[in-house]
Specification:
Blueprint: H1 16-39, H2 41-70, H3 73-104, H4 110-137, H5 139-146, H6 152-177, H7 181-204, H8 210-231, H9 240-279, H10 281-294, H11 298-319, H12 321-358, H13 366-391, H14 396-453
Length: about 450
Amino acid sequence: MIFKKPLPSFHFKMNRVEKHNLFQFALQLKMDSIRNLFSSKLTRKGTLSLIDQGLVSATNFLTGVFVGRYCTKEEYGLYMLCFTIILYLIELQNRLLSIPYTYFWPRLKQSIKSKYTGSIYIHQFFLSINAILALLFIGPYITNLLGLEKLTPVLRTLAAVIFFVLVKEHLRKLLLAQLSMFRAFILDSCVAVLQIGGLLIILKLGMLSSTSTFFVMGLVSTIITLPLILTMRKSIVPSRNRVLPDLRRNWVYGKWLLFGSIFYFASTNLYHWILASSSGASATGILAACLSVIFLANPIVLGFANFVGPAAVHVLTENGIQALRAFIRKAVIFLTITMGLFSFAIFIFGETLLVSIYGEKYNGYGFMLAILMISFFIATVTSLYDLALCALGRADANFKFNLVALLTTISLGFWLVRHFGLIGAAYGILSSNALASIVRYFIYTRAIHAYHES
């Protein structure tokens, strides 16, 4: 100890003015630390995260444009139905593995981190194997049930490549969780160059289809992931004694996220399948084209989320609940302004952009674009509260507001699609996102208040 004698209790003798000045000084120090935290190191990593997500979103967007512009609406619809399966499996993987990893990894001792990472890779391996089996044996049954027999060969191709597609995405998420933004950027840059290059080749050869597109995705993922795993092998140390305990820990944290992801998938992507079964794959292609224009904002939205999610955990761990609250408030303001400007641009130029990208066959859907844009704006801004809740360990909250979205989809949304077709799907998506966002914000405010009191 520095002081051998107890310090005198001088603070009891302070008058009201002195106490107020001391409080203001302490508060200013705290706010300065928060400001420096938000504006220096994390901001640089956040900027790189935005650039990285821009590459990912551009790659996915251009891949969809290739199929949508140079193939029929039906072929594009088949591609999007299978792509929703990829999105669902990635979401499942994120909720069960990547998000718990993001939450626990910064809190572990250095000697344990490599073993925990090794356990995560073993969990991911078995998850990918189960995905292959589901596509091979359950997929054909569902396609026959919905009357989408043309989807069966595309599903077979997806089953052949899905393992390395999921491994590649898993590697990327772990790098982001460790705030290794530059390595994630290199990974996604290589994927972008090889995937777009491969699509140009099969387009030149006249072989472009939904099936060949997924083949290129799988081939590129295989080429990229194998050498990357070799370079990361020192940080991946599987321990047989830790595989099951780490699985239980991830399950306790991620089970609500897992159930929530099932509801999230159903509430957002189920509309593609409802449209396909009632109006044909061409209707799904139209909805997908409209959403792809709106998803041009994904470089900002997803890139910012990739930064805010891990950063929120670090901010809470190092600086406490008030720092987290200030961090999320600034993040919400930034995303609200950015998405507001983007929404205005879509209202004015959305239909022109849709036709320019996909051709005249997609003309006349400007009003539908506007409805979907409002829905996307509401969902993206309030999604930051979901990331804050994950940092607080409130994974159960994800289950609750996604349950609200699912119930809205299978009741109001299903009725709207059956009676009004495409425009009904747009109104259904808006209803689901709006109600879920209200519940999300309410749970967030209560969680912050409860954490502060504890």
